[in-house]
Amino acid sequence: MRDRSRVNRRGFVKGAAAFGVGAMAYPWLPARAQGVPLEFDGSKFQLAAPEPNPKSGGVLKYGITMRPPHFDFHQSGTINSLGSQGCMFDNLVRRDPRDSGKTIIPDLAHSWEIAKDGKTYTFHLRKGVQFHDGAELTSEDVKATFDRIAKPPQGISIPRSTLFAAVSEIATPDKYVVQFKLSAPRPADFIMGAIASGWNGIVRKKTLEDNGYNLRRVVDIPGTGPFKSKRRVENEVWVMEKHPNYWNKAGGLPYLDGVEFYHALPFSPELGSSLLSGRVDYARLLDPGSLRRVKATQGMSGTDFYQSVIQATWMNNKKKPMDDPRVRRAFHLVLDKPVLVDVVKDIAPMMVGGFIYPFSDFATPLPELSKRLGYQADPTASVKEAKALMKAAGYEKGITGLDYLVREVASFKLWSQAIQAMLQQTLNVQTNIRTAVESVWFDDVNTGKFDLAVGAIVSTLLDPSDYFNAWYSPKGPQNYSQWNNAKFNELVPQIDTEVDPKKRLALIRQAENIMEEDPPLLPMSWEKINDGWYNYVKGHRPKDYFGIYDVVRLDTFWLDK
Question: What DSSP designation does 470 have?
Fold first, then answer.
């Protein structure tokens, strides 16, 4: 496993040398990342490809899963949305594609100032930026975008709204100035990281107003991004063309004339064969076998990297027997996690972990975790404890007829069968597998139409203050289990605001222990991603990505052929 340094996905602007413009250094912050500068003047900064003399022209053929549950990417939590839509939008600030997204650089905002008290973030917008429909970007569009994200209207659910819980007001003192005002200071790296998330692309205020602030059915949402929608065929292809009035003229972006996204299921042989046969130039979410063949093929390259996703089974706490924490812990204990990782090893690269990113400094180290009940290579002790818990809960003879909702993905279908067998053989728990496409799966888990549900969810940041709130808190938009633990709820605000690293880690460990005893979900594994491409595809550096949701714009991509 690669060693993730402290300056990783959550590392930020590193000073003037990174951009060729002035910056004032900001001291190290306790949230594990190099801090952003309090003031940054990027008025002369223009992004360009990392290689010298990039060529313009050509159409990139990209293989990726793109069966979105709807078209409102702010409301989504799947690569099926952002993987293809991301190139249509810009951010206020963004992650740098030249260093795998480690640092934050200017985007629609060329400069910023952060007040010394940490409570006001001021951004200065570029002038003359045009949406795809010809309208000029103003601070009102930024405000409307983030107002909806931070405080979603009735009927709108946005997984990343919890990132902006400390934002009390978004002000527009000028047509080209926007301010985020916080009720209390938070680490600057956390706030800037939230704003720079690839999910938080800017849309028009008028677009939101015209559609009642719900963009689920709007296929062609006007963005300011380097590419705009040209043609879409459901479950087949989405063709993008170059935005002729894109603002980054000095950098010459975008280089490509267009992008054709071809749909293929993640980790499927079909995706691998489409790349190896030359039908696509780049493929994301390759199966391990295809990655090995790509690396062995002259003129091709491939890599893997950690992914900001937990693979899990949710338990509907509003239904019996999952309303009993003893049953939830019993289920958690009998899932043989090393076996579950092994079950899908030929389909998807996974690793064992608990409720916290296992490759982060926040998590219990894997050697220590592997000694804990529920994670041991020998499950005997875990099964014994689970049976005792089921007996105490009144289910010694087992449970029948549980509805097990499964996403239409090869790895999930394999896992559901393995978990079905584990529950049956160890606890006499019988489940009925029900497979559903993404749109149905997300609708059913959001409305509680399941007993158990296997799938995956994504976080924006590596920091637990992000996903603890989004995944495990009572009002968390991705708390599909509807889990509610009073002791955990008391800890989360303390974790969010604690500035001492040692004290904060101790609080995180307490939260982890609570989840082990009363699981909010059943962690199965944590994901890695395989990418493959032909060497003529330039302008990208995915080797050290953390996640696949931030550097998705393709504006620096170019074809050397």
Answer: I
The position carrying tokens 């799938």 is 455
Looking at per-residue pLDDT, the higher value among 45 and 33 belongs to 45
Distinct helix (H) and strand (E) counts, the chain? 16, 20
Question: What is residue 4's predicted lDDT score, i.e. its pLDDT?
Answer: 30
Proportion of the chain above pLDDT 70, given as a percent: 94
What residues have CB less than 8 Å from 271, skipping those under 6 apart?
A: 63, 264, 265, 283, 285, 286, 287, 290
Which two three-digit tokens encode residue 123?
A: 């951004």
Note the residue count of the chain. 561
533: three-class secondary structure by DSSP: strand
Q: What is the CA radius of gyration of the chain?
A: 23
User: What's the pLDDT at 11?
Assistant: 33
pTM beyond cutoff 0.70: yes
Instruction: Name residues whose C-beta falls within 8 Å of residue 180's C-beta, 6 or more positions apart in sequence.
Output: 120, 121, 123, 146, 167, 170, 191, 195
Q: Which amino acid is at 556?
A: T
Contact indicator for 130, 191 with CB cutoff of 8 Å: no
From the list 221, 242, 303, the residue with the least C-alpha distance to 541 is 303
pLDDT (mean) for 200-211 = 98
Count of Cβ atoms closer than 10 Å to residue 185 Cβ: 17
pLDDT for residue 215 is more than 90: yes
Contact 92, 192 (CB under 8 A): no
Is 223 within 8 Å of 90 (Cβ atoms)?
yes
Distances (CA, A) of 292 to 38, 130, 272, 301, 303: 45, 43, 10, 10, 10
E strand map for 126-263:
167-174, 177-182, 227-233, 237-242, 258-263
